[in-house]
Design a protein that fits this description.
Layout: H1 2-9, E1 14-19, E2 24-28, H2 34-49, H3 60-68, H4 74-78, E3 82-89, H5 95-102, E4 109-114, E5 117-123, H6 133-140, E6 144-148, H7 149-158
Length: about 160
C-alpha cells in the first residue's frame, strides 16, 4: 500500500492516503474529471506495475450516497450473517446484462444495479455462495471492483469533511 500511495502521489494528487490493504486510495485533486483521472492513474499503474489495473473513482459524497441508497430491505441488510458488497463500475451496464445478473439471484444471493454500482447481498446463513466479484463482472460485461459495505462505511466515517 505504501508503493501504491507513492505512485498516486507522483501523479500530482494531494493528501494521498491508502485505506486498509484493498487498493482504496483517498486523495484530493483540482480536477473534477473522474474519467481523465481514472485514465491517468491506470496508465501510471500499468507502467509501474507491468499489468493493467482498472480504476474507479468516487468522491466521498458519492460513497456516502452509495451507502445510503435503499438497495434492499433494511431488515435484510441488518440480519446477522448477511453481507452487502458494492461493486463499482465505470458505466451503467446494459439492461440485458442487468437482467442476466438478476436471473442469478437465489436464496443466498441477491443483486441490484443502480447507475454505476451493483449491490450484492449474500445471505451466509442460507449457505455458501457460488458467485464471486469476477462472475458478477463477467455477467454484467463491464469491469468492476467490489468492496464490503463495512469498508465503505468506515471510509465515509473517516473522511466526512474532505472537499473534492
Amino acid at each position: 500500500m505504501d508503493h501504491l500511495r507513492s505512485l498516486v502521489e507522483s501523479m500530482g494528487f494531494a493528501n494521498v492516503e491508502t485505506f486498509i490493504a484493498s487498493g482504496n486510495v483517498i486523495f484530493d485533486s483540482k480536477s473534477k474529471n473522474a474519467t481523465a483521472m481514472e485514465q491517468k492513474i491506470e496508465k501510471q499503474l500499468r507502467q509501474a506495475l507491468g499489468y493493467e489495473v482498472k480504476t474507479f473513482i468516487r468522491t466521498i459524497a458519492e460513497v456516502t450516497d452509495v451507502m445510503g441508497y435503499p438497495c434492499f430491505k433494511r431488515s435484510d441488510l441488518e440480519k446477522p450473517g448477511n453481507i452487502l458488497y458494492v461493486g463499482f463500475m465505470s458505466a451503467t451496464p446494459a439492461p440485458a446484462a442487468e437482467k442476466k445478473l438478476a436471473s442469478l439471484a437465489d436464496k443466498v444471493n441477491d443483486f441490484h444495479v443502480h447507475q454505476r454500482e451493483v449491490y450484492w447481498l449474500r445471505r451466509t446463513s442460507e449457505g455458501d455462495s457460488e458467485y464471486s466479484g469476477g462472475i458478477i463482472e463477467k455477467t454484467l460485461a463491464t469491469p468492476s471492483t467490489f468492496r464490503n459495505s463495512t469498508t465503505l462505511k468506515k471510509i465515509a466515517a473517516k473522511y466526512p469533511a474532505r472537499v473534492h
